[in-house]
Specification:
Layout (H helix, E strand, L loop, with lengths): L3 H13 L8 H11 L6 H12 L8 H22 L3 E2 L2 E2 L1 H4 L2 H17 L6 H29 L6 H27 L3 H28 L2 H4 L5 H4 L5 H9 L2 H10 L8 H13 L2 H22 L4 H15 L4
Helix pairs in contact: 1-3, 2-6, 3-4, 3-8, 4-6, 4-7, 4-8, 7-8, 8-9, 9-15, 12-13, 12-15, 15-16
């Protein structure tokens, strides 16, 4: 087995070799730009790692890894437009650097390019990858719509929120793991176990993202800290605070989430204080730990070598303790 760093380096080298320089420049330059901004490369690393765990040649999974990274970045370009986000990975977002129309069109092209990469596989693998990818892509769109709907709803419940982040974020992590297993020719049971492991890990990952959005270090987080509060997003922190706080705190929090204009540093500071007073911050950390533990339970049931289980567990623990 290779190390996570080695997988990441192999992936980046392969991605760099595929840089697009053709016309029209204003369609393809934003694609090169967003893919070149870095990021954790979490999903492609999982594709490569899983392929090798099931005795496959991880290099045969590189096209699938690029496909999922291209799709992920497509979703980020469109998410940033919808959220009017100015920063992504510490750099200007695509729609701010170019314009909204360019962001939409370049994102559309990325979605198509992701599917094209599956054409490099044999028919049966192509079929399984495309089927999984289509299901996942639609769920990501559903999750994004739930996220948008929640901004104007005052009755969002925790189970609804967890379903939203499952669709918007976790299914793509789960798909990455299953894609690696598909390329390696793993059994259907093993594929589904990998998917379940990824689903729980993906929920933990998004909850950690929610936490870092409020309590992260602006120097390392790579996005605008407090962005979820500015956008009035009903995150796990917000919903826990509503459930745990006094009636006065609940009213204050609801008032803060109705303030216009939304761009207010004092608003972010006030909401952060309520999250701490209601211990919503601690409850979120507990939830992150719980979903990570659920992922590890699935991992324990899998019939793979112990060293590979340890590698996946280490990966999960690193996600849970990350600061970016």
């Amino acid at each position: 087995m290779h190390t996570i760093t080695e997988y990441r380096e192999e992936f980046i080298a392969y991605l760099d070799s595929m840089k697009i320089t053709k016309e029209p420049r204003n369609l393809y330059e934003p694609i090169t730009y967003i893919l070149g901004l870095g990021g954790k490369r979490l999903r492609p690393v999982l594709v490569l790692m899983t392929a090798e765990i099931f005795k496959g040649d991880f290099k045969k999974a590189l096209d699938a890894a690029v496909a999922i990274e291209v799709f992920h970045n497509f979703s980020l370009v469109h998410d940033d437009i919808m959220d009017d986000a100015p920063v992504r990975r510490g750099q200007t977002t695509v729609h701010e650097k170019w314009d909204i129309n360019t962001g939409i069109l370049s994102g559309d092209a990325m979605l198509i390019m992701a599917y094209q990469l599956f054409e490099n596989y044999e028919p049966n693998i192509f079929r399984d990858l495309a089927k999984l990818f289509s299901k996942t892509a639609l769920e990501v769109c559903e999750g994004q719509q739930y996220d948008v709907d929640f901004e104007t709803r005052d009755d969002v419940m925790l189970p609804e929120y967890l379903k939203m982040i499952e669709y918007k974020t976790a299914v793509l992590v789960a798909a990455a793991l299953k894609m690696g297993a598909i390329v390696a020719g793993a059994s259907d049971t093993a594929q589904e176990q990998m998917y379940s492991f990824g689903l729980n890990l993906g929920i933990a990952f998004q909850l950690q993202d929610d936490y870092l959005d409020v309590f992260g270090d602006p120097e390392t987080f790579g996005k605008q800290v407090g962005g979820d509060i500015i956008e009035n997003k009903k995150t796990y922190l917000y919903l826990k605070a509503l459930n745990s706080g006094s009636e006065i705190m609940k009213q204050e929090l609801e008032h803060l989430y109705s303030i216009q204009p939304k761009e207010s540093e004092s608003k972010v500071s006030a909401v952060r204080s309520i999250f701490e007073k209601t211990e919503a911050d601690k409850a979120t950390k507990v939830a992150i730990s719980d979903y990570t533990a659920k992922a590890f339970e699935v991992l324990d049931e899998m019939e793979i070598e112990l060293e590979n289980k340890d590698l996946l567990k280490q990966f999960g623990e690193n996600l849970m303790n990350r600061t970016v």
